[in-house]
Design goal:
This protein has one helix spanning about 1-80, and strands spanning about 85-90, 95, 100, 105-110, 120, 160-165, 170-175, 175-185. It is α/β, with parallel strands linked by helices. The chain folds into two domains: about 1-50; about 85-185, Cupredoxins -  blue copper proteins (Immunoglobulin-like). The chain binds copper (II) ion.
């Protein structure tokens, strides 16, 4: 009764060892051939490196220049695609900056930093109809948000934002002190 059990056990062990050897061998072969290939590739790379070491620094300098140019291009693309927000401060000496150049779709935020009240609005005083669609008579209506006109005096610290979708050179003034003027150029 014990002999068949031993034989079956031996056969199983042999099979297991055989299987282990069989399945390990290709893996070892692959691994060693990969190492060989890597070693060869490494040698080839080293040979290439030493061959091109003299031109290496010139090459990387050119690469850096190209990268920088590419970055600049990307930044320009982003500027054209992404609307920007610009700030014009209203101080005791007027609008600052008094002339601002922006891109179509950009937003301008006027912030009153003066103790007196100020009311930025498109020219021409007193009707405010220069910027397309604007008219002081639209203040207090649902269209008030679509016109280049704060429609009220801003107290110190208050802001007025407007998004410029129309290209052109748009002059504006302080409705409460019409001699204060500025220009927004929309490209
Ligand atoms: Cu006015």
């Amino acid at each position: 009764m014990k002999a068949p059990v031993i034989i079956v056990g031996v056969v199983l062990i042999v099979l297991i060892i055989g299987a282990v050897v069989f399945f390990n061998q290709p893996a070892q072969t692959d691994s060693s051939s990969q190492q060989g290939a890597q070693a060869q590739a490494g040698n080839a790379q080293q040979a290439q490196d030493s061959a091109s070491s003299s031109s290496g620094s010139a090459g990387s300098a050119t690469d850096a220049g190209a990268d920088s140019a590419q970055d600049t291009q990307n930044a320009q693309d982003q500027n054209q695609q992404t609307p920007q927000t610009h700030t014009i401060a209203i101080t005791s000496s007027g609008f600052s900056p008094s002339t601002l150049e922006i891109s179509q779709g950009d937003t301008v935020v006027f912030i009153n930093q003066d103790s007196a009240m100020h009311w930025p609005a498109t020219d021409v005083h007193p009707t405010h109809t220069l910027y397309p669609g604007s008219d002081i008579s639209k203040c207090g209506t649902p269209q008030a948000s679509e016109i280049f006109d704060a429609c009220r005096g801003l107290a110190q610290g208050e802001t007025y934002s407007f998004t410029f979708n129309e290209k052109g050179s748009w002059t504006y003034h302080d409705h409460l002190r019409p001699s204060w003027t500025g220009t927004i150029v929309v490209n």
